[in-house]
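Consider the following assembly input.
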Amino acid sequence: DQQVKQNSPSLSVQEGRISILNCDYTNSMFDYFLWYKKYPAEGPTFLISISSIKDKNEDGRFTVFLNKSAKHLSLHIVPSQPGDSAVYFCARSNFGNEKLTFGTGTRLTIIP
Amino acid sequence: DVKVTQSSRYLVKRTGEKVFLECVQDMDHENMFWYRQDPGLGLRLIYFSYDVKMKEKGDIPEGYSVSREKKERFSLILESASTNQTSMYLCASSSSGQSNYGYTFGSGTRLTVV
């Protein structure tokens, strides 16, 4: 059973500070891990991904870190902006498999 | 602007009705997916399709069926709607071999069964 778990349902961060969203996973072989962002009444939008052969991937204000020994994935947003307030989902896919398995989501609120 | 279009943003249906949720993509993607989103449960896969007339069950297929007669269209069918199928339904598509780089999702259909 290959799962991803987001243990924090919500997170509040001051504008301009760093937001860190976390995700734990099980039983990884060769996988991709992805982060999605979702506003209310809209579909999720893809943010950033990382393959399990890497430790870090960066795209502008967003950086994803993969700690394979701890089976832990994190998304860093710096600096945090009010428009970052949304629900964030981590997801995984197995190599050669088109399906994504999603976590339960973390609601991020950026405080002005 | 490429997109995945879901025919309805909001639907209210009665218990026992047959419900059709339609999804169309204009990106010539091979893969299409139906998820539902519920608070505290995240996104759960109902059905998916890798090709026309092909379908596979996801994690929660009970009470649902799907149809893919054309590459661009993937329909989700609730055979007899029940109140526990009240949810946000999300359609997504991806190109074969590119799912690792993310799906494109539609805006969702908020279905309420009364």
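Chain B has no helices and twelve strands. Ask yourself how this observation constrains the way the partners meet.
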